[in-house]
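COURSE: Structural Biology Practicum
ASSIGNMENT: Worksheet 4, Part C
STUDENT ID: 0417
INSTRUCTIONS: Below are two proteins. For each, the amino acid sequence is given first, followed by its structure token string. Answer the questions at the end about the second protein only.

PROTEIN I
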Amino acid sequence: MPESTSLRDRYLALIDKIVEITLKGQIRSKEQVYQMLVQDIGTGTGEIFERCFGERLDATENLLKNEKDEIKQAKANRTLRALKTIQGEWERWQKDNRVSSAIASAIQQILTAESNARLLALLQIIDPNKELPLTLDQLQQLAKSLHQQMLQTSNPETERDLQQITAGIAKGLESWQRLEPELVGWIYQPQQLGFAGSPEQSGPWAFWAKKVKSPFPHALLQTIAMGESIVELAAKQSSLELGALVELAIILQCLQRALATWFDKQVYDSKVSTKASISTYITFAVIWSQLASGFNNSTKSGEQLANACFQVTLQILRAFSQREYFPLYGGIFASFDGKSLRHTLEYLDEPLRRVEGTQAKARILTLLGYSMRAVGAYERSILLHKEALEIARLEDDKACEVANLNHISRNYVSQKNYQEAINYSQRALIMARQAGERQGEANALANLGYSEVFQARQLEDVEPEVYESAIGYLEQGLLLSERLGDMQSQAFCSSSLGIAKIALENSESAIEYLLKGWRAAQFSGDLYLQGLNLAYLAQAYYSINELEKAIFAGSLGMYILEQIGAMEWRQSAGLLTILRGQMGAEAFKESLAKSRGSIIPAIGVDGYDYIPELLEKYQQSI
């Protein structure tokens, strides 16, 4: 407090001095004012100067407003002009000294934090969601300043922490220098769109692991490359040093941000599209969540490491939620290329419990809710969507609000509660039209038509006009999504139309829409909609006795849906089991073999070989 008082008096005197010599004509240029500010204002004390300046400015403006004496009024005018000159140069000083001030502030945050909270403090400092995040050069400056503080401290605990942080930053930047030149080299190898890939394909993780020398970051990248458990790896770290996690944070943050930036710059209808950008955010968020889960079960410092990992997870999710391609109508598995994501929901659910209601939280809950519906957890999905809906209303996020009304409607369809589904889809349609949310409108039209078709099927003696009206809504939704160029909504609307046509026993028309829905879902990367379209395609082909096509669609759909944990895989498995019984095991096997060349490019040899195992798994469960 005495230091602040002393500084306040000093800065008030500085302002008065500049005003005085300006009035005397001794200031010949603005540069002189700037140099006086540079000489006298210390780093990290700008807030005190700003308050002092505000006092003088307010006092002068009030004097000018209330003073009646013309001589005094003229002097007040000259004083105000002098203060405006100071204000302009102060703004220049702030701009020039933003970096040094930010670094000084960061150092204070780290030094004043408790030892077990210093890692968390550093991660908050390097948060990429900040208005002006630190560049790599500035991060290097921070490390140098922390090193100076380490040399000056007499506290052994502080010295140890600062040594770990500075070493971690240095190693992280060094590792990134090796990675950056070949950031996307793995993309140009075969089979490498997305983040899946077997070790023999030398996917991105194995590719990056070769460039990183430090033990723990290397082990993590290698673990991901081999498809082994990140949770188990983290749980085994009984004596992981603070610096190792600092280094990992820098490596992964640099990778994630650089990849997202690179993907965002690509042509959206090319091989590398928004699918890869979405995959980048989700993949890295899941990695940090899995690390947190593992550290929670490691050493006594595990809680500290877990909290830090959850912090990074939230930073990634917040950044993701603000991207224009954030999938309000998609799920977590949208970009994982066939990897099973049953545990992903748990990993992302935990960090979200730690944050209050924000727009970012509402959007991530929407993503989780969609994913929960895909795995058949309808009640949990509805709860997540209702929580997201409430937050979206408070945050005035109309697009998110409409999306959650639509998702709740679709959950009620899955539960065969068609009246509630109609109610929510009507609310979504009204709000979407009021807010001009065209994507939400397309989805609401599809939900409304879909719900009305299935409600009508439950009733007896329904007039044909009821079906015509419902199909009309579905066709409007598809037409609107096509006009928008929205492949996700096109996949959903086409799928809904195809399934409705099957319900109305119009298989030929259903096949046309389901094929269109499958292609759109492949483009958008939504595995759930891909699998769903294929499951119903198999049913439609079976109804017109196109058995080979039914086996192809059913097998591929069954595999995709089972891999993401969607309950609908059993629908395809049941149909394929009936077909095998009707055709005989050998004829069925031969027919499946004819589709091998079409199936392997989609799910690989291992996926193809797993199809008979899935059918056995289904048979044993009935």
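PROTEIN II
(use this one for the questions)
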Amino acid sequence: MSAEATNPGAPLRRRSRPRIDLRRIGRVALLGPASRGRLPDAIGHVADAHRAHHPDADLTILRRAYVLAESSHRGQMRKSGEPYITHPLAVTLILAELGAETTTLTASLLHDTVEDTEVTLDQVRAQFGEEVCYLVDGVTKLEKVDYGAAAEPETFRKMLVATGNDVRVMSIKLADRLHNMRTLGVMRPEKQARIAKVTRDVLIPLAERLGVQALKTELEDLAFAILHPEEYEHTRALIAGSGGDEDPLTEIAERVTTTLRDADISAEVMIRPRHFVSVHRVRVKRGELRGTDFGRLLVLVAEDADCYAVLGELHTCFTPVISEFKDFIAAPKFNLYQSLHTAVVGRDGAVAEVLIRTHRMHKVAEAGVVALGNPYTPDGTAAQQSEPADGERADPTRPGWLSRLLDWQESAPDPDTFWTTLHADLAQDREITVFSTEGGTLGLPAGASCVDAAYAQYGEEAHGCIGARVNGRLATLSTVLSDGDTVQPLLSSDATSGPSPDWLDHARTAAARIAITGWLDAHPDDTQGLVGQPDPRRQPQPQQPADETPDSRNKQGARVASVAVDGPGTAVRLAGCCTPVPPDEVTGFTVRGGAVTVHRRECPAVARMRADGRPPVGARWNDDGDRRDAGECRVTLVAESFGRPRLLADLTEAIAAADAAIVSATVEPPSEQRVRHTYTLHIPDAAGLPGLMRAMRDVPGVYDVSRAQHQTTTT
């Protein structure tokens, strides 16, 4: 990361300490002279980088960790021919440059000892304490599975589990992958490509989400060079040829410096070169690169208010490109990033992008969660702290997206589902926060719907969701939520109800999609009932007389529930478009496969099929003269009402009071203050349907309740 931002409280001037180039770490820089007695001096670079961020840090524990790591790895060599100790040293130096605290650096030095040497976790715990032991164990668990094509998903599942308990585990893993990517040249090309692809698809998005831009950008460039060598070489040539005596960014930077100095705003202005992938993306987007496209201006100030003062001066003294303005200070990104983005036009029409932030914002923008220190101590210091008695660790730096990943990864049924869902979740680059009526908050990806909120709040209980209130108003489950909305999912009292396949079209979170898919896979026979058709498993089966034979049953006609149709051995089902119940007049039609679908006679589908010349099949309710034998059934009702507060709650209460259970429900968007509700209900006795409809009509605001007449196609 840039040396200018290593100490937020320092005066605004360029530091004299030379910046260590992480890309050029080599064994000479790490090990110094070959003499065995000089090896402890190899941590000198680590100590210097660490003291730049933490001047009062006690380096004793780092020296002890190095001695143990070097002695345990002695004799081991990397594939490049270097002593193995160069790897943990390089990883630790990367983290030290980012500002990691002492505990993280200690664990980084030891991160391979338990996996690759005779050192045990008990030894680490005894010599370095519980916290270091916990981090080393977390990283060790990530190395248990080889990086094979089939094993990769499980490796990253373990990574998420370990990271969820402590984000510093992921920090060490990212630095470990960065050093390995730097030294991939000794491996076969196909192995380089495989590791680079996984790095691009999973680790780089994770680094982005943790806010560790310094690692993310270099990982991007290294993966880009391996996976797209021709584009990389072309981009490298463009960057190499961009330097010249007439750099337009330099001229604009000088004007900005003068402008801010004249306005008495203390600020540091510098040119921040774009990395290779960034230049490549700009070239693809614009086709032809301008001189100012190879970098951006970075303005560092002391306080938040100074950021807006700089913005005001730039927009006053330069021509701003308003479409490029973004305020990530007032609305930070999900990965802790804060900055003002704008663009100004210089002389000759040159456009320069400008980033405005405080020193503290810059440190977090580069190092993300690494810059936040130890999340388990109030002051961020690396104090030793024992595991809580209940075994849970509450990490205040753990972002909402990581909590969601940890939740759904436990439900992923297999590695392939986990891998696919992980890719989809990492593709979400923006978060929203919505509020529950119970006072809590839910972090959801942008584009999330009421379905996602229901599963985020209630888990599998959301299978019975029948609607929602958004900001106090009734809304469909497909309603897309906005940042700051208050959402109240409404659940059915019917424990047997489940989600519709249509919900998958509205779900954006992995947790919701996995839960819905799991329910649908476990209830394949319930999908017809979900769209208004009766569930045969819920229909009462007629009692079979003791002397009844298969032949005699065929003579009586086929039956389902309390319906009989003409035709021996015929499968029967009730039409979902009109949900007939006794004592409706019914008729049937033969559909594909030879089954008979029974409709109410006034159903629009009946008239359509008669017009098509399809012959009806006789159908009748089985009635032994006792109307009480009508039996339980499902029915779809449509309630027309005027919109008002608590309408859905009152309707639901009326339905429950009539001893009916809601199987599914939809609420159409209000039109001219009128709302249309469609309910599929399970009622214990068809004879109670008229009373149920009267109870619903008695709800204030409801002006009509009728049986559903859907325009469906029967084949």
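ANSWER KEY EXCERPT:
Q1: The chain has a mean pLDDT of 76.
Q2: The CA atoms of residues 188 and 194 lie 10 Å apart.
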